[in-house]
Every structure is written in structure tokens, then in C-alpha cells.
Design brief:
The chain is of the alpha+beta class. It has a domain of about 110 residues: Alpha-Beta Plaits (2-Layer Sandwich), CATH 3.30.70. Helix content is about 20%, strand content about 25%. A hairpin with a 2-residue loop joins strand 4 and strand 5. Helix 3 packs antiparallel against helix 4. It is elongated. The chain starts with 11 loop residues before the first strand and ends in a 17-residue tail after the last strand.
């Protein structure tokens, strides 16, 4: 294994931040388990709407690794409890930086960041964005390198275990 790869392992975390969120779902789903698995719900249409007519969105945020706990706390305050976290590398306006190692100067082009992926219903888009900004911003006004947020339409979401689709699966 090369020195560049040593110690870097992509990690994926899925956080249901409160254990009791799934308790009622499990009881209800056990009753309808056979029916749900044999009759999957119809697919969402091309406008990223679930069966009830609300749009699904995928929010992707690139933040500083040191701000992850603050962002998770801010998301919990607005009742967003499920997210996926990945370690990523990249650069934007920062364009890397130079470091001194054993007397030699070298350029680090790719900076470590954390990517959050959060699937939400339309009602949760703005509160989620505001929570990420609140938790991810460095200082009062922010700094270059604090990150970016992308909001994408989400065609469909399917819970593998039950076959539920749309907002019910989120």
C-alpha cells in the first residue's frame, strides 16, 4: 500500500440519531409485512413527487471534518435524524496548501472534507439547509473552505426491507 493511501479509508455512516424513531414503524410494518412485500407501491413519477404529491430532494453538503458534530447537532434541532456521511477529498477556492515535512516543502492539492447526503421531503429542505449553514459555518461570517450545499431532485426512494416508496421510505 502506498504512503498516500495509508490511513485513508472511506467511511459510510447512517445515523438514525434517535433509537425510538423506528419502534412504531417496526410494529406497523410487521403487521403489513406480507402484503407490502408481495404488492410493491407504484414508482414515483418523473417530477420527483411521491404518491402524496410532495417533492423529494437529495441534499448533498460538503463541510469541514471539524464541523461534523456541530452540523449533526443543528440537524437534530430541526428534526432531521437520518443522514449518510462520507470522507472525501477535493478543493475549491482554497486550491490546496503547502506544508513543510522534514525540511521539504510540498503541496497538498486535495483537502479532506466530509460529504453529507440527506434525503428529505419538500417541507424539510429549507430547515435542513439552514441547519447545515448554522453548524458548518466557521466563525460569525464564515471562511473560504467552509463548504457547499447542493439540492437535487430525488426521483424515488425505496426502503429495501419493506418495499415502501417515496416519502414513506425516507
Amino acid at each position: 500500500m502506498s504512503r498516500l493511501r495509508q490511513g485513508y479509508h472511506p467511511t459510510w455512516y447512517t445515523f438514525p440519531l434517535r433509537e425510538h424513531d423506528n419502534e412504531n414503524e417496526d410494529e406497523e410494518e410487521e403487521e403489513d409485512e406480507d402484503e407490502t412485500r408481495t404488492k410493491p407501491k407504484p414508482a414515483a413519477n418523473s417530477n420527483a413527487l411521491d404518491g402524496e404529491g410532495s417533492a423529494l430532494k437529495l441534499i448533498i453538503a460538503i463541510i469541514q471534518p471539524s464541523r461534523l458534530e456541530a452540523v449533526k447537532a443543528a440537524l437534530t434541532e430541526v428534526e432531521v435524524f437520518r443522514l449518510t456521511v462520507m470522507d472525501v477529498q477535493g478543493f475549491g477556492r482554497q486550491k490546496g496548501h503547502t506544508e513543510l515535512y522534514r525540511g521539504h516543502e510540498f503541496t497538498v492539492n486535495l483537502l479532506r472534507k466530509v460529504e453529507l447526503q440527506i434525503a428529505v421531503n419538500e417541507d424539510f429542505v429549507e430547515p435542513t439547509i439552514n441547519a447545515i449553514i448554522k453548524g458548518g459555518r466557521t466563525g460569525e461570517r464564515g471562511e473560504i473552505g467552509d463548504g457547499k450545499i447542493f439540492v437535487l431532485p430525488l426521483e424515488d426512494c425505496i426502503r429495501i426491507r419493506t418495499g415502501e416508496r417515496g416519502s414513506e421510505a425516507i
